[in-house]
Design brief:
The complex is a heterodimer of chains A (789) and B (274). Chain A is of the alpha+beta class. In chain A, strands 3-5-1-13-10-11-12 form a seven-stranded mixed sheet. In chain A, strands 7-17-16-15-8-31 form a six-stranded mixed sheet. In chain A, strands 20-28-29-30 form a four-stranded mixed sheet. Chain B is α+β, with helices and mostly antiparallel strands and 274 residues long. Chain B is built from eleven helices and 14 strands. In chain B, the strands form four sheets. A five-stranded antiparallel sheet of chain B has the order 4-5-10-6-7. In chain B, a hairpin with a 2-residue loop joins β12 and β13. In chain B, α10 packs antiparallel against α11. Chain B is globular and about 55 Å long. In chain B, 51% of the residues are buried. Classes of the chains: A alpha+beta (789), B alpha+beta (274). At the A-B interface, α4 and α20 of A face α11 of B.
Chain lengths: 789, 274
């Protein structure tokens, strides 16, 4: 069927923009509520300690106190205590409020209910807890040592997950190699800092025996599964709905202790309970990310080809198991994606350990482990270039998967990668910055005392993973996505998806796609998301999956509905449906446009005059479709950065930042570019500004926006974005994921640029000016960095 | 991040404000632009029982120039930034003002508030210390004028008593040359290190911000050659023992101090020559 393309491919401004810029968004904190009780939490001041006494009498005696709850009050409600992880992970049973022990600074110890948050916070200060401190475990490698203090009394070590894997002929690769580069890479911790923090309103209706949760979760069905399981309620009696959300970036995927506590409290109190996270709670208690160590050995040939890869990965899992998703994701994705990142590596082995530590849990944040794997791979490429004398561009060219190797099956877990524009994107980006003239230019600037560097990252972002990632590992996380579309009795369109909106423009991009398929004006398409009572079963927003999978489901549902519209019209026009076309709100006979019905007339027939229709055409105009991807999609990109390091201050100035990207068919270039720019800014932030720092006692040191620095528009340079469009054969319209790719490739491009500017290895993704100063000192002392031969 | 409950009083005159501050007996705080105090209250790090809002007091606003500058405590930082008389009478202050936070903060934040708050990384205390300016404070019992170099005592600590209100800042006439240098991790953040330099009669004085509990003044020292400037900058860096924190190590801050001091003195002496 030929596709009308009135909207797809055009930079339509977001249809939600007017509502949001006029302050008419409706977030959790905006919900009108009657008789709501507010929660504040008393939190642990210790990273690791036994609770020797917990006295809430002073708090309970406060005149504004409605109730104080501790773990003992809530535990009877937790019929099935939650634990985080999949098959093979150690079982870390959790409680929404600490029981006996605390394991991170900020862990909720007691919940206070009052008529206002102000009063609740006053009362929370009166909760009196005595602790017997235990040694804080803050370093994941030390956490794995036999002499480390152990977080969970019933475990014999802090190992949460261990995995080993080998494929191909790695021993042979080392034998054939002309040399081996060895490097150790680490990455600092950071978090997602959505503009809107977490928030929840839970309301139990004791007449209906049903629980309604309004919360800015990214995956409402997963949240429903966890909450229903923990409270032993039928999932059908639990509704989870997400109103507008001011960003998530992954950190709103977990169901956290606070949200579970609020759900429990609404059962106890039989009325609406509200908790809005403040920024300090966000910076100390929302999931954090990266904190990965990758030790790599890469055998190579003198022509610059990496022959294999052997890695040891240690991931800091944090203090407790994240319900369902667990804390394995960063480590496991690092292990898998080192060889699913667009490079042709078939001989591979990894050893992975995820360690528990006395810090907030690590889970998923934009890009997950890939910013670190790309940093490691491109640093290894540069190390091979340095050893072999082959230029840095050519080394990458020799290692990227060749066009004739697609579809390419990855060495780990059998992902099938579709074709992209790997070499074209690399060549284009290098050409745009004048790579051939670069060495001469860099040398010229050096003679002027100016330290210029060129950074390169290239490869693939694995996105839109299907059931194989979580579902087949036993978790209630769906890989598919669903879309229901209805044409109402006046010809207007309503679409409902299981995804959630975080401001990424799905109302627009999917609206474009649906409007094209159904031949209507985009203003007549309303897209809603994220409500377990009202939207089809889906998996929510993560893994750059919404436009890819939600879009595929929407496309198929639209196609079904279009077919039905034509059938209904054909019956009335006494024509063959194949002779009809639907465009501009009309169904007409091809070649005879005067014989036509408006969509409104067709809808009227379908809803109110169905008795005129043949019996095989059901009344109404509704369709639902679910789409499950065969494996994942792989968008490819190359980033090239030209930067300058100020030897006086350690500051990094960006002179050029070129990104050549291929996410298949671009539904809306404004939205795609916005996704890239925002993601690149977050990648920059995580590399040079945003660090969740902990001291050796496990105390968080970056607890406000004065110490946890998020990039502003003044810190983000101009980005030069270019696109190729190699459609994916696996998805509707050929769309591939785009949401995370900027974050995936930015850090490595900055790090390899700094390494090039200073002539030293950059081994850690934490390039604050002070850290760059340390590198400058290494340059002065002739210390290249971690071992490279 | 909600403040504990407090009493809010609005003072119509300086005398009324002073009465309320005295009655608070150490538990009352003056509220001007609220850019620092309110954030501290939300973090429950400041817990005033009474907030005395001095915003309505007209006599505390405005700038007068008579060679030097007399700045009323409630003059906003934005008003100073936009006042041509300020640029004329104190090029050093004019150069430092855009470094203070962001425009929205300068629209609310006041000169007196910044001085009274005494953040060691804030710009105004550093500029006042370099210029040897004075701070005027008043209580029910009278007024006194304190040299800036004695006013800033330590982290968020000043020579003003609980019952005293900062009413004005007085800057001496412009020096022969001046320059302000600052490095922060993002534009508008508190300085990792800032350097205010004033040059008079071939001698440079620098005040260093962000490196100690209060601005550190070094000099005056003759700076008649490039080598002398470098030596002066190095001695300034060696005279301090800055803290290590999430934003940078002690060594880095010392390095930055030397670098920025050299830059500032070079510019200040070049400005003088031109």
């Amino acid at each position: 069927m030929t596709r009308p393309d009135k909207y797809v491919g055009k930079g339509i401004p977001m249809v939600t923009a007017g509502r949001f810029t006029r302050g008419m968004g409706r977030y959790v904190n905006d919900l009108p509520l009657v008789n709501v009780k507010h929660v504040a939490f008393a939190r642990s001041t210790e990273a690791h300690a036994r609770i020797t006494s917990l006295d809430v009498s002073a708090a309970a005696a406060h005149p504004a106190c409605i109730a104080v709850y501790t773990a003992d009050d809530l535990f009877p409600l937790l019929v099935n205590p939650y634990w985080g992880g999949w098959e093979g992970t150690a079982r870390a049973e959790g409680s929404p409020l600490a029981r006996n022990k605390v394991r991170w600074v900020g862990e909720p110890v007691a919940a206070i209910l009052a008529n206002s948050r102000y009063e609740a916070e006053d009362i929370a200060e009166l909760v009196d807890v005595s602790y017997e401190p235990l040694p804080a475990v803050t370093d994941p490698e030390k956490a794995l040592a036999p002499d480390s203090a152990v977080l969970y009394d019933e475990w014999d070590s802090n190992t949460y997950f261990h995995d080993e894997f080998e494929c191909g002929d790695l021993a042979g690769a080392f034998e054939r190699a002309d040399g081996v580069v060895k490097r150790r890479f680490t990455a600092a911790r950071h978090t997602g800092t959505p503009l809107e923090t977490r928030g929840i309103v839970a309301e139990y209706d004791s007449g209906l025996e049903s629980l309604t949760i309004q919360c800015n979760f990214q995956d409402v069905y997963l949240a429903r599964a966890i909450i229903a399981e923990v409270l032993d309620m039928p999932p059908s009696q639990v509704r989870v709905a997400s109103p507008d959300s001011g960003g998530g970036f992954g950190v709103k995927l977990p169901v956290y202790p606070e949200e579970l506590a609020v759900a429990c409290l609404s059962l106890k109190e039989r009325g609406p309970i509200k908790w809005i996270q403040d920024r300090q709670e966000d910076l100390i208690g929302t999931s954090q990310h990266r904190d990965l160590i990758i030790e790599a050995e890469a055998p190579y040939a003198t022509n610059g080809k990496m022959l294999g890869l052997k890695v040891r990965i240690v991931s800091d899992g944090g203090a407790y198991g994240v319900p369902a998703r667990g804390n394995t994701v960063e480590g496991m994705m690092a292990a898998e994606d080192l060889v699913a990142g667009g490079h042709d590596i078939k001989d591979y082995a990894y050893v992975l350990d995820v360690a528990m530590t006395n810090k907030p849990p690590t889970c998923v944040y934009r890009g997950v482990a890939q910013p670190v794997t790309v940093f490691a791979l491109d640093s290894l490429m540069d190390a091979i270039a340095e050893e072999t004398g082959v230029d840095r561009g050519e080394v990458r060219r020799r290692n990227l998967i060749k066009q004739d190797q697609f579809p390419y099956e990855t060495a780990t877990k059998g992902y099938v990668m579709e074709p992209g524009s790997y070499e074209e994107a690399l060549n284009k980006a290098l050409e745009l910055v004048g790579f051939d003239e670069w060495p001469e230019y860099q040398a010229k600037m050096r003679t002027k005392g100016r330290l210029f560097g060129l950074g390169i990252t290239c490869g693939a972002e694995a996105a839109a993973r299907g059931a194989t990632w979580y579902g087949k590992r036993g978790l209630p996380i769906s890989g598919q996505e669903g879309c229901q579309i209805k044409i109402d009795h006046t010809g207007r369109v309503y679409a409902a998806l299981g995804t959630t909106t975080q401001g990424q423009g799905l109302e627009t991009s999917l609206g474009q796609l649906i409007a094209d398929e159904l031949g209507v004006d985009i203003a007549d398409v309303r897209v809603t998301m994220g409500d377990t009572d009202r939207t089809p079963y889906g998996a929510g927003t993560w893994a750059s999956r919404c436009a890819t999978l939600g879009g595929s489901a929407a496309l198929r549902a639209s196609e079904d509905l279009r077919e039905k519209v034509l059938k209904v019209a054909a019956a009335r026009l006494e024509a063959n449906p194949d002779d009809l076309e639907l465009a501009d709100g009309h169904v007409s006979v091809k070649g005879a446009p005067s014989t036509a019905l408006t969509l409104r007339e067709v809808a009227r027939i379908a809803y109110f005059e169905a008795s005129d229709l043949p019996r095989d055409i059901e009344p109404t105009l509704e369709a639902v479709h679910h789409f499950d991807p065969p494996s994942a999609t792989f968008s490819n990109s190359t980033h090239v950065i030209i930067l300058e390091v100020d030897p006086g201050t350690g500051a990094i100035t960006f002179h050029r930042w070129v990104c050549v990207h291929d996410c298949g068919t671009v539904l809306n270039p404004l939205i795609v570019n916005g996704q890239l720019q925002g993601a690149m800014a977050q990648g920059l932030g995580g590399t040079i500004l945003e660090h969740s720092v902990y001291d050796e006692n496990g105390q968080p040191l970056a607890t406000t926006f004065m110490d946890y620095l998020v990039p502003t528009s003044l810190d983000v340079p101009e980005m030069e974005l270019h696109h190729f469009e190699t459609p994916s054969p696996f998805t509707g319209l050929g769309v591939k994921g785009v949401g995370e790719s900027g974050t995936v490739f930015a850090p490595g491009a900055i790090a390899t640029g700094v390494a090039d500017a200073l002539g030293v290895h950059v081994d850690r993704l934490e390039l604050s000016p002070s850290a760059v100063y340390d590198l400058l000192m290494r340059r002065e002392n002739g210390d290249a960095g971690s071992v490279s031969a | 991040m909600k403040p504990p409950s407090f009493e809010y009083r609005r003072a119509a005159s300086v005398d009324e404000a002073l009465e309320l501050l005295a009655a608070g007996d150490g538990d009352a705080k003056a509220l001007a632009g609220g850019q620092s105090l309110v954030a501290l209250m939300n973090l429950r790090l400041a817990r005033p029982v009474t907030l005395v809002d001095i915003a309505p007091i007209a006599e505390l606003r405005g700038v007068s120039s008579n060679g030097g500058l007399r700045i009323g405590a409630l003059t906003t930082l934005a008003e100073l930034e936009q006042d041509p008389a300020v640029a004329q009478a104190s090029p050093l202050l004019a150069e430092a003002l855009p470094y203070i936070g962001h425009p929205a903060i300068r629209n609310r934040g006041t000169a007196g508030g910044s001085v009274a708050h005494a953040d060691p990384a804030a710009e105004l205390p550093v500029v006042l210390s370099a210029l040897d300016a004075t701070v005027t404070v008043r209580s029910r019992t009278g007024e006194r004028t304190i040299p800036a170099r004695e006013f800033f005592r330590g982290f968020l600590m000043t020579a003003a008593g609980h019952d005293e209100l900062v009413t004005a800042i007085t800057l001496p006439p412009a020096t022969d040359g001046a320059a302000f240098e600052e490095f922060a991790r993002r534009p508008g953040d508190f300085a990792l290190v800032s350097v205010a330099c004033a040059v008079s009669g071939g001698e440079a004085t620098v005040a260093l911000g962000g490196v100690s509990g209060a601005p550190v003044v070094v000099g005056p020292t003759a700076v008649d050659s490039g080598d002398a400037i470098d030596a002066f900058a190095a001695s300034a860096a060696e005279s301090i023992a800055p803290p290590s924190d999430v934003h940078g190590s002690r060594e880095y801050r010392q390095h930055l101090t030397r670098e920025l001091a050299a830059r500032a003195v070079r510019r200040a002496t070049a400005a003088r020559r031109s």
